[in-house]
Amino acid sequence: MTGAGRPRSGRQLRIAGHGYEAVIASVGASLRVLTFEGRDLVVPFDADEVRPGYRGTTLAPWPNRIVDGRYAFGGVEHQLALTEPARGQALHGLLAWAEFEDRLVLDDRVVLAAVIEPQTGYPFRVEVETEYRIDGDGLQQTVTARNLGADAAPWGTGPHPYLVAGAGRVDDWTLTLPASEVLTVTPDRLSPVAVEAVDEHPEWDFRAARPIGDVFIDHAFTSLERDGGVAEVRLVTDAGTGVAMTFDARCPWVQVHTADNPGFDAIHRIGLAVEPMTCPPDAFNSAADLVVLEPGATHAASWRISAV
Question: Cα 131 from chain centroid?
Fold first, then answer.
């Protein structure tokens, strides 16, 4: 669909099964809706709405921030566009507003793809394929990168859903986050400072389940406890129902954000962003857990959202 009949968020791809239903919007390969037996598991947005920020989109070729949009790779200095102008940072990669093409569309599975073309600040050609699949355990997304160019390329990825436990807001829900370390950031620009033990920051220690209350979180966490190789972030209501996000060691980091928008009650703390990441913020500079894609190489990472 093109022109006036095309929704602002792109083509709408619905998949369903086992009580789950998801709608993927082709712009940004964005998870627009996810429900279980009619209950929202993520904050949705309308098909004909310009997607609010990065809600539900696929982050590539880096998640989170590159400080000042500057980095060096292979001995060459690069300057990216500052897509977070207020903080002077390059935020969440290059595909958030890209149109993804269909590669496979089934009742319970879709595969979409886009190519990052060489450009100022990222002179590499990388194909990004994302699969959304529903099964009895929920919705799994897998992002696969393939280096189509002649040079090695820096790479990182992650999703950006805002999880919903049930009625109420973030303050009302109980969080379990099995991370023993947090990346502290500057208060103004959220630039990384240091990885520190959550023992030193009890406000961000959710290893034992507890209500979020009025705590502000916009931090990356690591040193995750895993069961069978899988980490789980769980968000529940007082009744015990809610939503969980699971991911394996290919995502050694997870960004959590309480969606603070003071003065904008319609969106203030209405969902908890949980973003498994293959690398931390500013990994293009620190090289921490940075994936280096050699020519012709591929890299895949996945995560799952399930009802509780």
Answer: 14
